[in-house]
Amino acid sequence: MTKLLFISAFIGFSSFLNAQKSIEKELELVETPEQIEQFLESKNSKKNKLITFNEEKHKTNLAKELFDMRLGGTKVNENEYEKTVYKVVKKNKKTYYRVAYIYLDGTKYQLDEINNLRDKIIAKYHNGAPFDFLSKQYSMDDNANKGGDLGWFLSGEVHPDFESAIVSSEHHLNDIFTVDVTEKNWYYVVLKTHEPKDIAEIEVLKIVEAKN
């Protein structure tokens, strides 16, 4: 009886190991966007997903390990209840931009009032007032709480008129200038806080399997 129990336990353990290994074998064949989409559909779980990691935004130990891996490399994390497999399916670099701004709402001020206020803000900045302080004092959107810092953003993520002024070669690091998006009644004082930066990104397929 004991021998039968041992054999049954061994078979069960072997099946468990094979099941756990199978997901990594399956992932070896998953490379193209189409294959990734089909694979996620076949697994049918909200825990399974394609994640984008940005080297500036993601500083966890997991992110650092994934960035150090080669394209197609996998990493396995396990606990008592589940096994998570990460596969790096894409690596690239994208150009990001970063500025801080003060937003003035054109539906609440006349244009001459806005221009006078912007002149006042710029004069205060040149006289030594920190831009983040001025943003908290004057800016009319929630980003004022961050001192106007927009964070790193890609081309296409902001209004084209705003983007055009930001990426213009006319403006250099620490320049302060105005931007008008007249069709939206959006008016800005902008400080160029960073030069454009190529930031590494990776796309990682995350697959989670429950342990039986």
Provide structural commentary.
The two termini are 24 Å apart. Helices cover 36% and strands 30% of the residues. It has 6 helices and 8 strands. Strand 2 (74-78) and strand 3 (82-97) form a beta hairpin. The chain is elongated. The protein has 212 residues and is an alpha+beta fold. The strands form 2 sheets. Strands 1, 2, 3, 5 and 8 form a 5-stranded antiparallel β-sheet that branches. A 3-stranded antiparallel β-sheet has the order 4-7-6, sandwiched between helices. The protein has helices spanning 2-27, 33-43, 61-68, 111-126, 131-138, 160-167; strands at residues 49-54, 74-78, 82-97, 99-105, 153-154, 176-181, 186-192, 197-210.
Provide the fold topology.
Layout: H1 2-27, H2 33-43, E1 49-54, H3 61-68, E2 74-78, E3 82-97, E4 99-105, H4 111-126, H5 131-138, E5 153-154, H6 160-167, E6 176-181, E7 186-192, E8 197-210
Antiparallel strand pairs: 1-8, 2-3, 3-5, 3-8, 4-7, 6-7
